[in-house]
Amino acid sequence: MSETNKKYVLIKKAKNDLQALYGMLDSDVFTEEIFGFHAQQAVEKALKAWINHLGFEHPKIHDIRELLRILRNYGANVDLFLDLMELNIFAIQFRYEVFTEFETPLEREAIIEEVRPVLEHVDSLIGSELQD
Questions:
Q1: How confident is the model at residue 3 (pLDDT cuts 50, 70, 90)?
Q2: Opening angle at CA 51, ends 49 and 56, nearest 5
Q3: Around 86, how many Cα atoms within 13 Å sit in the side-chain half-sphere?
Q4: Are 43 and 63 in contact (CB under 8 A)?
Q5: Over 90: is that where the pLDDT of 4 sits?
Q6: Alpha carbon 123 to its chain's center
Q7: Which of 18, 51, 91, 121 could bridge across to 62 with cysteines, CB 3.0–4.6 Å?
Q8: In sequence order, what are the residues at sequence separation of 6 or more whose Cβ sits closer than 8 angstroms to the Cβ of residue 84?
Q9: 36 near 30, Cβ under 8 Å?
């Protein structure tokens, strides 16, 4: 798959994860682990699409902090998205480990409002709305 196609596929998948978050607002139905995982995935995929948009191959990692660092090294301004590194806790470690609940429940609507802007930003950069 070409770099051009990768970025469109990634941003589409990121949008799917974001859409899933809206359906997971009920904590009685969807655990924090599942909600957090999809939030992390939406951000990870959007950042990888951004890297592809800049003309580079994205690394096969799940670390939002590292993806932001890579983008910064390529000259991208990621300052508005640094708080998203908090979602790293839902990355690889919770795929294979038992999740222990947080002391306070996740503020799901607030997380969506933090995730949505990075997807919108990348989407506007690559013009994926033309691919929907």
A1: low
A2: 120
A3: 10
A4: no
A5: no
A6: 12
A7: 91
A8: 43, 64, 68, 114, 115, 118
A9: no
Kindly write down the DSSP assignment for every residue of 46-92, as one continuous string. HHHHHHHHTT-PPPS---HHHHHHHHHHTT---GGGGGGGGGGGGST
- Whether 118 has a pLDDT exceeding 90, the answer reads yes
Structure token pair of residue 11? 């941003």
- pLDDT, tens digit (0-9, with 9 covering 90-100), for 36-60: 999 999 999 999 999 999 999 999 9
Taking the C-alpha atoms of residue 54 and residue 75, their distance in angstroms, rounded to an integer, is 9
Contact 39, 115 (CB under 8 A): yes
Report domain extents, the chain.
3-130
Residue 96 binned pLDDT confidence (cut-offs 50, 70, 90): low
CATH superfamily of 3-130: Nucleotidyltransferases  domain 2 (1.20.120.330)
